[in-house]
Amino acid sequence: MTKKLHGHCGRFASRPTNRREMLQWCANGFGALALSTLSESSSASASGPWVSKPSHFPGRAKNVIFLYMDGGPSHVDTFDYKPQLEKYDGQDPRKVIGKLAPTQFDAVGKVLKSQWKFSQRGEAGHWMSDLFPCLSEVSDDLAMIKSMTSKFSEHTSANYFLHTGNGLQGKPSMGAWLGYGLGSENQQLPGFVVLNGGLIPPGGLDCFGSGFLPSAYQGSVFLPKAQPLANIKPSEANSQLQKSKLALIRDFDQQTSGQLRADPEVEAAIQNYETAFKMQTAVPELMDLSDETEETKRLYGLEAEFNNTKTFGMQCLLARRLVERGVRFIELTCPGGNGDRWDQHGGLVDGHNKNCKTVDQPIAALIKDLKRTGLFDSTLVVWAGEFGRTPFAQGSNGRDHNPFGFTVWMAGGGVKGGASVGATDEWGYRAIENRFEIHDLHATMLHLLGIDHTKSTFRFSGRDMRLTDVHGNLIKEVIA
Amino acid sequence: MIRLDQRYKLSAKSLRRCASVQDGHLRLFSLTVSVRIAKATLMSVIAWGLPFSVAPSVLAEDVPTAEQIQFFESKVRPIFVEHCYECHSETADEVEAELLLDSKWGWMTGGESGPAIIPGNLDESLVIDAVRYEENKVTAMPPRSKLSDKEIGVLEEWVKMGAPDPRTAKKTMVPVANEIDFQKRFNEHWSWRPITKPEFPWVTDRKWPRAGLDRFVLHKIEAAGLMPAAEADRRTWLRRVYFDLIGLPPTADQFAAFLSDNSEHAHEKVVDELLHSPFLGEKWARHWMDLVRYAETYGHEFDYPLRYAHEYRDYLIRAFNADVPFDQFIREHIAGDLLNEPRKNPEEGWNESIIGTGFWYLHEATHAPTDVLGNEADIMDNQIDVFGKSFLGLTIACARCHDHKFDAITTADYYALTAYLQSSCRQEYPLDPLGKRAASTREINRLRRLAVDTLKTSDLVMTGETGKNSGDYYRAAMQVVAEAKSEADLAVVVSQAAKAEGLDAALLQRWVDKHEPIKNELIDRGYELENQNVFADFKGDTLPEGWTTSGLAFSPIGSGLQLSSDGAVLVPNTVESAVNGKKQVGILRSPTFEITTDRIHVLLKASAGAAVRVVIDNFQMAEFNALLFRGTFLNNKGTDTQGQWQWKSLAGDLRKYKGHKAYLEFIDNGDASIAIDKVVFSDGGPPGKMRVKKLVFDSDALSQMEQEAAIELRAGRVHPLILVLLRNQILSVEDISQEASESLQQARELAENLPPIRRVIAMAQGTSEDAHVYIRGSHQNIGEVVPARFLEVLGGEPATRLELANRVATLENPLTARVIVNRFWHHLFGVGIVPTVDDFGPQGLPPSHPELLDWLATDLVEHGWSLKHLMKQMVLSSTYRQATVANEAISEKLVASVDPSNDLLHRMRVRRLSGEAIRDAVLVASGRLEPKPFGPSIATHRTPFMTGRGARPSGPLDGNGRRSVYLSVYRNFLNPFMLTFDMPSPFGPQGRRSKSNVPAQALTLMNDPFIIGQATVIADKILSLADQNREQKIAIMVERVHGIVPTENQTQQLSQFLESQANAYGKEDKRAWADLAHALLNMKAFYFLQ
Fold first, then answer.
1. Closest partner CB to A433 (pick from B140, B145, B988)
2. Strand A398-402 vs strand A388-394: parallel, antiparallel, or unpaired?
């Protein structure tokens, strides 16, 4: 009996030995692009890197809206109710909880109970604190994963890990992987859009980078203003001036292409001008909310008193508009000014009040709006921070980073609304039941879009790289 | 089939593995290994620190009692069966971590991480660590859900009672890893084969080949039934060779010169000119920068600056321009700090070689890692990845967690290379332009010695012509103090006493003022150092063993008399940075040690500009952010002792790092001074003062001392009295010897006029250490020890870093020369002979022309590793001169069937220009190009979309017209123009850029303000040309941008465009011309290269 030992690197299929095998090997959608980076003739040309590509199996969702809660929301103050903290409030955690792992700021305070009231919401009975009055109305649409873990207790590495499956900088972000795997259904808008509410997370734009994937897959950061994207506004005073310029360019380019017997790269570059021209219209049209009803705008909180609610409401509404237009992956970052993101090392009450007020109404509106527009079943909504927070205080009124157990939730396409999986210990400190890691979250997200995470690979650095590296198990409990 | 009693045999085998056998040029290692589980067992014994003699006690066959069996069967076994067997038993589909828990044998021998249970010892038992979910050493188990507290309690109880286990049956079958036969891998993969120079292959068309390489290309073209393409027209070739060699287009004059040169050597003349162009290095340096993930900030949260990175970039440019032989280039990169005769900069005379080592440290870095050793391991992974791919085309970093999956590279190989990194230090090395500082310093030293020698031969007349000595002054001073009733009274009393005693009144006044400190200092016996852990006391004339310096500042003072250039008498047995003036620059480094105490105390005297730090696990970021490293970096107030000797403590977070490796650095960046007396490790405060019995201190004792001091001085030694008198300004050198004083005056002038220095990032040799294998790549899981050495299949005996460099930089190593010629082929022909330029391993693609590759490699070495020779023959070849369309004599159908993707190079490839070349060409067309070379980079122009932490002030839109290679590379704020055109993110080596072709590129060229702005400049330039009519102006503009002369039809069309745009503007000509220039910049004829 021969046994394979520690098959954690089982993804290494033997490599093709000749070009023909290589072509066959690459032909199944994934990897086709890997080849195009090697060979001039089969370049991204005819179609472009974002052209819609077939999934491995029929996906339940087509698009993703990733609500990124930058800084690490406190799970024990939002979705992970721990009565034990009330009982031991003010006691030394080293005595009552036991051994504590090193924290980022190394200032361990007392056990700290939540300052908000918890109750069970909806038929699903998810525990939620008073921080989310609007979201509790759609409780039954949410699937809670209450046992998520990360490997890093420092923002930047944890951000990279959440976004790219690796704690180091320079790896492709989820949105880039999805673009590489599935392309997008809209060629006039970028397939991976980051709606920047004001804060770029620690780690910078590399959270949305394409890493070793072709740069076309990097996220495009949209600002919530009239010109949301660099170079999208025509440089000419009027469209006729541009059109005549483009006509001239096209004429000359066709002559060049003719001389080169229609070299595919040159042909593709010519084609790009058509697309780019259309993008100049598509983007302003996206940002123009005049076709939205007043009721819709109100729903999203565009008339709210709290300015950040307006900003995030605008982002959520734009997210829905991007989904309508077939954009594959949309990420929302947080507005500034609520304390240091969700990173409440101090001032927990004020910071979390503001952060929740910012996102609560807009997110609930997004879910309701997606449902009534029929997009909910094909849109995967994911709410996550890079880690949770400690059940004990940092100083007196803050909480430090806690990567050992925290809550993320999903909703929408393929998600079992009302489900809840996993648990942290009675303190909310470590995940102890159905422990999941970020790789599992990624595997599940890809699965819901019809991608087998073990088969979506890109040959780089002598390896077949994956979003999930050599890890990843589906979180079956949240899949409908 | 391995049993425990075979351990010893295995150990012998393992030993044999370390020995190498000679085999031809290459030293191969014996590859009879290795049943992995056995190896792991051996490792585990080492890892757990159990000598072999102890092992049997672990193996003792204690017979469990009936009660123990009952306990095991009823409580323990069910837990194993339910929660562990799925992955850790014979019946598992895949045994995880090589660990079996379905037999006693299984947990005793353990898995990759060693024995899983140490009977009786909860904290050392990995199984207990795993189920407790604390992850001290191993991953929490079972992976998904923690066992109940009750179940964990059972396992703890069982281990505590000695882990009685009745499952005595030794398995007859044990899991055996797929044996990895490295020799087979080595033998079977093409790139490991030695390089021999191939014969030229047979070709039919004898006329076509111009260069040797053409015959290899033609041979394959002919064999496929094809013909090479026609020769490209001369304009096309010239534009191609300009962009390829210097990254810039030819000017109209350069076109004209070449087109009118009908001589046989016209092409060669151009190439020779280009090879001598200063622009050449700027083009080729950028290719190398892609490999070494060149950047000027560290990335991560705050994007801290990677100071002096641009000096490495300039070094590259100079090296390519100077055609530094590539083997030398490699030696400089790997061990430029260790070369016996470093290459000198021809103009500036500084050590050029050492700058090459900077590449090691261009990695990203984060502040405040909660796990500093893990952080070091990640950085080393990146460093080895760059090293392996750049020079060898090997994916060595793949072997960090397990032996390479495909290649003949072991995990031990990987960690053997990390030993070089662990044994080295990052430094900011001060270059010495023209050696002026060294020369000045030599002269200052001479003058200082001269002063001391003069002093020694002088009469030590401390009290001038009065004949009185210090004792007399002291006695008088004490009298004055006793008699004076008030401050106002004092001057009168002093004057009276001086007159009465025949003393110098001014000097007596000083004695009155300073008698207390003088007395205290003279009876000071120093610090109580008994029972103290003294790390260094700097006694002796040389630095203590293992201490090293960079720069010229730090000198050991020794026991003799030494005067600084400032005239100070230096304290014996210290080390000091301002001996030759405050402008000296340098670093003093301790050997590596293990942190064992809460604090490190340093007795020092320093100014605010100096810095002291503990570098823990080579972590360099503490200076930027103290989070988690509080107290490990002192500067400013932290080092300022206001001219006094004081204990300064490195404390705070240091205690967290007990057990970690560290070294100390004392840094003087110029305009500062730091002198160090002692370094002491302790958990408490710094050592206290020595308690002294009451000493008789009176004028007689002082007189006696003065006599002794005079004798000592003549012998070159410093009596404490001299120090005290000088320090308290009772005495000056001038008082003793005018001549000595003059020498010092000269020394001081030199010291104050030292030329400025430049700093570069470099490697320095630290304390040589072996490395530990980190099992499965986890630094918490320590395996066998490996010495610093090269890959086992390429020799692999322990070697210094310089020897490593030599082993990389030789034709005997089958990879190096192949890899570099392939890189040049890739850049000049569009696709490498080996298309995967950074991966020559089995996962890469095989060479399309293996003989050509080897011919080029040997030819390179035969020509002294000259890269210019390599370039020259490539661009002058017939292959390179081909047009980009296939020969009209061959059918498209044939091409489509035999060489559809042009692997055989039956024509040249059409290539899109790089982002750098596009931008530079725009600047050439507009005349804005500022050809100034070198220096700090131009800040990135920041758009409203580039926000986030660590953002820097925005730079000029046109980068001041500098070439793209001189634009900043901020990791978190990369230049969007360059990114759009595929400049790689600087995180890992990328010898081959991705070639994207996306609408964002069109949008950039259509609407980017830089392009729009330059189009206007082009238009202005053209419009300012006098004596040219409209058509001529159009033609000039087209040639400037596209390098071609437009046809009559084209000119007409462009002219019509001008008219229609002008009409739209209402007759305003200028904007129409800018539109024309803008349109030309958007045409494929501009940014694609034929």
1. B145
2. antiparallel
Asked if A463 and B836 come within 8 Å (Cβ–Cβ), the reply is no
Condensed to tens digits (0 to 9), the pLDDT of residues A32-79 reads 333 333 333 333 334 678 889 999 999 999 999 999 999 999 999 999
DSSP code per residue over A236-267: SSSHHHHHHHHHHHHHHHHHHHHHTT--HHHH
Q: Is residue A39 part of a domain?
A: no
Q: Is B32 exposed, middle or buried (0-12, 13-18, 19+ CB in 10 A)?
A: exposed
A260 touches chain B (CB under 8 A): yes
Count the residues in chain A: 480
∠ at Cα B504 (B498, B507), nearest 5°?
105
Q: Tell me the three state secondary structure of residue A393.
A: strand
CB spacing of B385 vs A461 below 8 angstroms:
yes
Residue A434 and residue B145: Cβ atoms within 8 Å? yes
CA separation for the pair A39, A31 (Å, rounded) = 13
DSSP 3-state percent helix, strand, coil across chain B (nearest 5): 45, 10, 45
Helix (H, G, I), strand (E, B) or coil at B574: coil
Provide ipTM, 2 decimals.
Answer: 0.83
Instruction: Provide the pLDDT for residue B37.
Output: 36
**Which among A5, A234, A238 has the least Cβ separation from residue B175?**
A5
Contacts of A236 in chain B (CB under 8 A): 1075
Buried b (16+ CB within 10 A) or exposed e, A88-124: beeeebeeebeeeeebbbeebbbbbbbebebeebbeb
- What confidence tier does B53 reach under pLDDT thresholds 50, 70, 90? very low
What is the pTM assigned to this prediction?
0.85
Query: What total of structural domains would you count in chain A?
Result: 1
List, as ranges, residues 652-681 from B with C-beta within 8 Å of A: 653, 656
Do the Cβ atoms of A156 and B1012 come within 8 Å?
Answer: no
Output the CA–CA distances (angstroms, integers) from residue B382 to B90, B150, B866, in the order listed. Answer: 37, 44, 29
Contacts of B973 in chain A (CB under 8 A): 204-205
Q: State which H helix or E strand residue A163 sits in.
A: helix A155-164
Model pLDDT for residues A400-414, shown as the tens digit of each residue:
999 999 999 999 999
> How many residues does this entry show for chain B?
1090
* CB nearest to B95's CB, from A6, A42, A459: A6
pLDDT of A425-444, one tens digit each? 999 999 999 999 999 999 99
Structural domain containing residue A147: 56-236+266-478
Q: Which of residues 64-123 of A touch B (CB under 8 A)?
A: 99, 101-106
CA–CA dist B888, B892 (Å, integer): 9
Nearest chain B residue to A258 by CA: give it: B885
Q: CB pairs below 8 Å between A and B: how many?
A: 312
Of B601, B623, B627, whose CA–CA distance to B428 is shortest? B623
**Structural domain includes residue A462:** yes
Interchain CB distance below 8 Å, B884 and A263: yes
The CATH number given to whatever domain includes residue A273 is 3.40.720.10
Question: What values do phi and psi take at B332, rounded to 5?
Answer: -65, -35
Phi-psi region of B425 (alpha: psi -120 to 50; beta: other; left: phi over 0): beta
Does the residue A343 lie in any domain? yes
A184 contacts chain B (CB < 8 A): no
Distance CA A302, CA B112 (A): 58
Residue of chain A minimizing CA distance to B1038: A252
Interface test with A, best of B1007, B1011, B1050, B1059 (most A CBs within 10 A): B1007
Specify burial of residue B1034 (Cβ count, 10 A radius: 0-12, 13-18, 19+): buried
- The answer to the question of residue A7 being in a domain is no
Torsion of CA B6, B8, B12, B17, to 10 degrees: 70
From the CA of A201, how many Å to the nearest CA of chain B? 7
